[in-house]
Every structure is written in C-alpha cells, then in structure tokens.
Design a protein that fits this description.
Elements: H1 17-23, H2 28-45, E1 52-53, E2 57-58, H3 61-68, H4 72-84, E3 89-91, E4 94-96, H5 100-104, H6 106-141, H7 145-173, H8 184-192, H9 194-204, H10 212-228, H11 243-255
Antiparallel strand pairs: 1-2, 3-4
Length: about 260
C-alpha cells in the first residue's frame, strides 16, 4: 500500500496516563521518541499497524535499533514497556499497533483516495470522448487534404505569375528620370568647344568679379568675330584641285 504522508496525534497525548507513567521511568525521553518513531513508521508503511518488511519479514529489535539509530538495549526496553501498557502487541513474533486503522481513520482515508481515483478515471474518459468526437467532426468537415494542397500550390503559382506581370507592366510604364541639368560651362563647351571656352575662362580669372555670364558673352562675341574676320587670302577665288592629276603631272616632270 502507498505510504501515508501524515498521522493523527491527539493534542493531549502528554496527559495520557501511559505517557505520564513512561515519563517517570529512566530513559523516558528515548522511550517516547521511539514511540513516535513507531507511529511514523506505521504510517509510512501503511500496513494497518503491522511492522513487516515487504509483507514478509517481521521487524526485530535489532532492525528497529538500526533504523531508529538508537541502542539495542534502549529499543528493547521501549518495546517491553509498550507491550506492558498495551500500546503494541506481539502476534506470532510480529510487532503490531492495536486498532491502528480505527485511531487513524484510514478507512475514510482509503475511501477518499478511491473516490479521487474514480473521479480522475471519469474525467479522463470524458476528455477522451470529447477528443474523439472533435476528431470525427473535423474529419467530416475537412476536404481532401491532398486536393487542397494541390489547389493551394496552384493558387500560389498563379499569384507569383500575377506579381511578375504587374512588375513587368510597371517597369514598362515607368519613364526614365530626366538627365541632370547641364552647367553653364558644359553648355558653352558643347556649343563652342572646350579649348575655345577654356581660353575665355583663363582670361576671366584675371579679372575679379567675372562670372560665367561674362565668359558666355565673350564666347559669343569672339565666335561671331571669327566667322566674319577676313585675311589677306580672303579675296582669292576658290579653286578646285584634282589631287590625283597633280601627282601624275609631278611624276612626269621628274621623269623628263
């Protein structure tokens, strides 16, 4: 049987005449301690107050002396005293406490334990029935999982294709951002040539307060002047030359 975690002790135990008589004896403290050790041992083994090891071997005074960590002579004196006062009985060499179950109300304790076990069994059965019922409902309501899995994968694939198509349309309809605006210097270089502009910039550095507007004005004026400027060769008429014919004539003159 399972051990009992507690035992009953009346509060006026030290007013009991048997305990009073023991207290008048030599080694009374050791005898009383052994009595309480016997009570606790009976509750721990929960064998209806019968002191046996594994329901087979009766505890001897030597065994109890070892377990209680008391001298053998003290244990023998205590057991003899308890037997004389009717606190224990030796039945066929086995130490017993008379009416142990009656005084400890173990029958009521066992009935309570049995009721608790029965309540637990009933609750487990109810929970099992509810769980089985829930599984049956889910099984009836749930469609074929393999079909659902295929449909789910198909929908996911279609969703990815739709996303790709939308991204492609967005990329097609997205206009490229306009190029950054050119600076005044870049515009002048593009219009007049870099070396032409750099010459005017170098000239502008010689004068404080000169801006790119001034450089642009100089470029415009100098470019216009260059287009209309005449040299001493300007009055010569333009002539068309045949380079191949000139080379031929030059070779013939050398051979002659």
């Amino acid at each position: 049987m399972a051990e009992v975690k507690w035992i009953k002790i009346v509060t006026d135990i030290f007013d009991d005449e048997k305990i009073l008589l023991i207290e008048s004896m030599p080694e009374h403290d050791a005898i009383i301690v052994i009595w309480f050790k016997l009570l606790c041992m009976a509750g721990k083994t929960n064998n209806s107050g019968v002191f046996t090891l594994n329901d087979k071997i009766a505890y001897t005074d030597e065994m109890l002396a070892t377990i209680f960590r008391r001298p053998k002579t003290t244990v023998q004196l205590a057991l003899k005293t308890f037997e004389q006062f009717g606190m224990i009985e030796i039945v066929d060499g086995v130490i017993t406490i008379p009416n142990w179950g009656k005084h400890q109300s173990l029958d009521a304790y066992e009935r309570k334990k049995e009721r608790d076990r029965e309540n637990k069994r009933r609750k487990r059965a109810e929970q099992k029935a509810l769980a089985q019922k829930s599984d049956d409902v889910v099984a009836r309501q749930s469609p074929d999982t393999s079909t659902d899995g295929a449909k789910s994968r198909s929908l996911e694939k279609e969703g990815e294709e739709d996303k790709k198509e939308i991204r492609g349309r967005v990329e097609e309809n997205t206009e490229l951002p306009p190029p950054p605006p050119q600076t005044d210097y870049e515009c002048l270089c593009q219009k007049y040539g870099k070396s032409f502009v750099d010459e005017r910039v170098t000239r502008a550095k010689k004068y404080s307060g000169t801006t790119m507007a001034t450089v642009a004005k100089w470029c415009e004026e100098d470019a216009a002047a260059g287009r209309t400027k005449k040299t001493k060769f300007s009055n010569f008429p333009n002539r068309d030359y045949d380079v191949s014919d000139l080379e031929r004539k030059l070779l013939m003159s050398r051979q002659g």
